Structures are given as C-alpha cells and as structure tokens.
Amino acid sequence: MTDQALPADAALPGKPTAASRTTLSHIMTASETNLLGTVHGGVIMKLVDDAAGAVAGRHSGGPAVTASMDEMVFLEPVRVGDLVHVKAQVNWTGRSSMEVGVRVLAERWNESTPATQVGSAYLVFAAVDEEGKPRSVPTVLPETERDRRRYQEAQIRRTHRLARRRAIRELREKRTAEGLIDD
Ligand SMILES: CC(C)(COP(=O)(O)OP(=O)(O)OC[C@H]1O[C@@H](n2cnc3c(N)ncnc32)[C@H](O)[C@@H]1OP(=O)(O)O)[C@@H](O)C(=O)NCCC(=O)NCCS
C-alpha cells in the first residue's frame, strides 16, 4: 500500500457515482444462521463484499480486488425470511483504488414497516490488470450533496488509514533497531 497517493490518470474520463451504484437483494435462509438463530455476521459480510465488488468492477471497467474492509458495523440482527438489500456506491477514487460505501437494509418478513438499516461498511478495492497489478481507475464524479459529503468523509478515512499504517511501520522499525524482538 503506497503511503503517498499518486495523481489520478488524467487520460481516463471521470464517471458519475450513479453510473456504478448497485443494490443486491437476498432473502435470508435457515442455512445462514448462527447458534442464536439469527443470521451469521459473516454471511452479511460476504453480501457486502459481493455488492462492493460489483460496484468496483463496474466503476473501473474490469477486475477489482478487495484490499481492505473497515468499520463494518452491525446495528440490528437479521432474521431468517428477512429481505436484505445491500446498497453500494463508490465514495472516493485514488489512482488505482476506490473506497466503496455499503449500507445494509432489512425488510422484516413479518412486519409491514419500511426497511431498517442493519449495518454498514467501507471497503477499499484496487483495480487490477491481467497480472494482478494495480491499474488506473476513472475519477469518481460525485453528483449530489450526499455524494460530496461521502467523498469528503472517505478522504478523511484514507488519510487515517495511511497515517495508521505509517505509524505502525515506524514503531516496528524503531523496536527492531532497539533490538526488541517479538517472542
Ligand atoms: C490490493 C493489492 C492489489 C495492492 O497491491 P500493491 O502492490 O500493494 O499496490 P499499491 O501499494 O500500489 O496499492 C494499490 C492501491 O491500493 C491501495 N491499497 C493497497 N492496500 C490497501 C489497504 N490495505 N487498505 C487501503 N488501501 C490499500 C493503495 O493505497 C493504492 O491506492 P492508489 O493507487 O489509489 O493510491 C494487493 O495487495 C493484492 O492483490 N492483495 C490481494 C487482494 C485479494 O486477493 N483480495 C481478495 C481477498 S481473498
């Protein structure tokens, strides 16, 4: 993971957020439950990764791999029979990476209430070529105030990811230089 963002490829035309926004819907089944009888968190994470991957592939026009997933939050349990909607969009783009924001909503099978938000996550995808090497992506063009807010918030998360990684690397180098070795 590069510490300094390289500039986006100016030769690639930008793409609006709406061009790749995607919703994946799924009815939860009994085979997807944990010991408590509610849906296993890992099943929801898989749906989140699937939806985000579809968005990243659409935006970048080719293969994209998950580089990281952070801030996965489960707000409420999902139950068997619930119709789950996983809504994903590109929040931000770098040179070869994209932050995809995902919201998870559940329509309760036994209630006539509007869908409730049950989770959310942010994933970073890297677009890759045939050899698995990072390739340039089109700059995302936020269209609405909500998209612009999400873009700005994604930039904050990107700055923090890079700073945290750099700080940990520096700490490890310092400990190694001091002769401190993990047991
Ligand atoms: C993601 C991957 C392509 C990055 O390759 P790399 O050689 O480290 O390349 P770079 O350092 O140039 O990173 C490419 C981009 O991804 C971003 N990136 C890489 N690792 C990241 C991480 N852990 N978190 C956030 N962003 C990350 C970089 O910041 C860079 O963004 P930019 O081009 O927009 O500035 C590579 O680590 C990989 O193939 N990982 C496995 C992915 C995979 O198989 N996922 C499925 C899980 S089974």
From TrEMBL:
InterPro entries per record: Cytosol_ACT, HOTDOG_ACOT, HotDog_dom_sf, Thioestr_dom
Top-level lineage group: Bacteria
Segments forming domain HotDog ACOT-type: 18-131
Keyword Transferase: no
Keyword Hydrolase in record: yes
Keyword entries, A-Z: Hydrolase
Protein family per UniProt: Belongs to the acyl coenzyme A hydrolase family.
Protein name per the record: Acyl-CoA thioesterase
Taxonomic source organism: Streptomyces gossypii
